[in-house]
């Protein structure tokens, strides 16, 4: 019993003797927790391009031999493919969406193209062109119906989305940041509180353990644990779960399904699957453009020259069509309503993959930074960076005697 009291008395004495040093431990741990989590978030999205020495860099791998590229920019292809598969597989039917277009309305919007082709290319008088415009209008209307029936062969949604993400690797990151804004803030800020609580434990251990390396090891644990705890808190549990009489509890991201559905659908409809980008894909993708040309040629009585001319002029006249197509396809409400109906397990897959890809790397990076911060705490506690097991032993010399001192007995 007396030994236990003596241990606590010794700890109390240590605290009184260096209370400023020990008070700094949870404060520094709080900063370490915040900073490691902040850095983890930055490492997910930045830098867009690889920064470091190009000694060993692999496509799709963020970490090089000496350098780093953001997880999302590095894995843009893989992530965007998974995302577009989710969109086309669970959220919308391409055939059903394009079926909403009114062929006669699209033909009406493209009527100016008929006059342009007739006047500028064939020098056909305007009166003659106008006289037969109804015929070409019928052809265009019938062609739109053909497009609707064959839209899968004419529009490769997967390639359209993935190519955009690869051309602008920041775009996918912006989508994830918009959808997970609150979760990313939580991931950063929670490090402050988790770090402080773990720092209090770290301080208590330092009072009872005489090894200064407990601070560095503790710092590594703080950096590891704050990242791990925050990531778990965001996505676990997936389904509402009661713990005894408490709850139900659910991951923070899962509780915001309606809000995230709104953000995701709005961003996707306004920045990714727009009429302009869909038609660009149809007309420029080598596979789909060939199908588009053949379908058009059939409607133009087999005339390759006429089909070539229409394809050439079409991009100059689509500006009139895009507003109507964007409005009529109604991708934003379609995506939103479908996403709101997703199960929790399905919805968790919307954001979690960006963390899963290199979750272990992020957690280990936090541990390393925490360990380095612990060295700072060790320096504060000991006054120097000392490796006790490497410390050289020096031979003690006898004390020097003042001059004229009597010889030692």
TrEMBL record:
<feature type="transmembrane region" description="Helical">
    <location>
        <begin position="360"/>
        <end position="387"/>
    </location>
</feature>
<keyword id="KW-1133">Transmembrane helix</keyword>
<feature type="transmembrane region" description="Helical">
    <location>
        <begin position="21"/>
        <end position="46"/>
    </location>
</feature>
<feature type="transmembrane region" description="Helical">
    <location>
        <begin position="216"/>
        <end position="235"/>
    </location>
</feature>
<feature type="transmembrane region" description="Helical">
    <location>
        <begin position="191"/>
        <end position="209"/>
    </location>
</feature>
<protein>
    <recommendedName>
        <fullName>DUF445 domain-containing protein</fullName>
    </recommendedName>
</protein>
<keyword id="KW-0812">Transmembrane</keyword>
<keyword id="KW-0472">Membrane</keyword>
């Amino acid at each position: 019993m007396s030994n236990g009291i003596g241990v606590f008395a010794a700890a109390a004495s240590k605290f009184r003797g260096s209370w400023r040093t020990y008070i700094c431990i949870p404060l520094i741990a709080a900063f370490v927790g915040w900073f490691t989590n902040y850095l983890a978030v930055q490492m997910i999205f930045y830098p867009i391009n690889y920064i470091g020495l190009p000694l060993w860099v692999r496509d799709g791998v963020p970490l090089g031999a000496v350098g780093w590229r953001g997880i999302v920019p590095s894995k843009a292809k893989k992530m965007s493919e998974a995302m577009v598969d989710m969109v086309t597989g669970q959220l919308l039917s391409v055939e059903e969406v394009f079926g909403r277009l009114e062929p006669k309305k699209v033909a009406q919007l493209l009527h100016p193209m008929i006059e342009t082709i007739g006047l500028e290319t064939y020098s056909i008088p305007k009166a003659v062109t106008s006289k037969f415009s109804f015929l070409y209008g019928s052809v265009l209307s019938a062609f739109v119906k053909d497009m609707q029936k064959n839209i899968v062969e004419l529009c490769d949604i997967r390639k359209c989305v993935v190519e955009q993400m690869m051309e602008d690797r920041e775009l996918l990151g912006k989508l994830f940041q918009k959808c997970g804004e609150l979760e990313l803030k939580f991931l950063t800020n929670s490090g402050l509180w988790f770090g402080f609580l773990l720092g209090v434990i770290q301080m208590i251990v330092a009072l009872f353990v005489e090894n200064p390396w407990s601070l560095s090891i503790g710092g590594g644990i703080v950096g590891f644990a704050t990242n791990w705890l925050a990531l778990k808190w965001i996505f676990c549990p997936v389904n509402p779960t009661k713990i005894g009489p408490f709850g139900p509890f659910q991951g923070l991201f899962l509780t915001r399904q309606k809000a995230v559905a709104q953000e995701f659908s709005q961003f996707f409809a306004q920045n990714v699957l727009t009429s302009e980008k869909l038609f660009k894909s149809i007309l420029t993708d080598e596979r789909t453009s060939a199908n588009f040309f053949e379908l058009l040629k059939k409607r133009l009585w087999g005339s390759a020259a006429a089909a070539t001319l229409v394809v050439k002029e079409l991009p100059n006249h689509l500006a009139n069509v895009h507003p109507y197509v964007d409005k009529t396809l109604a991708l934003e409400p379609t995506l939103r309503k479908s996403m709101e109906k997703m199960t929790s397990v399905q919805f968790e897959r919307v954001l979690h993959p960006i963390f899963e890809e290199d979750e272990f790397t992020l957690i280990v990076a936090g541990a390393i930074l925490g360990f380095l911060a612990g060295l700072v705490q060790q320096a504060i506690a000991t006054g120097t960076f000392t490796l006790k097991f490497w410390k050289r032993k020096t031979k003690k010399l006898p004390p020097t005697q003042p001059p004229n001192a009597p010889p030692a007995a």
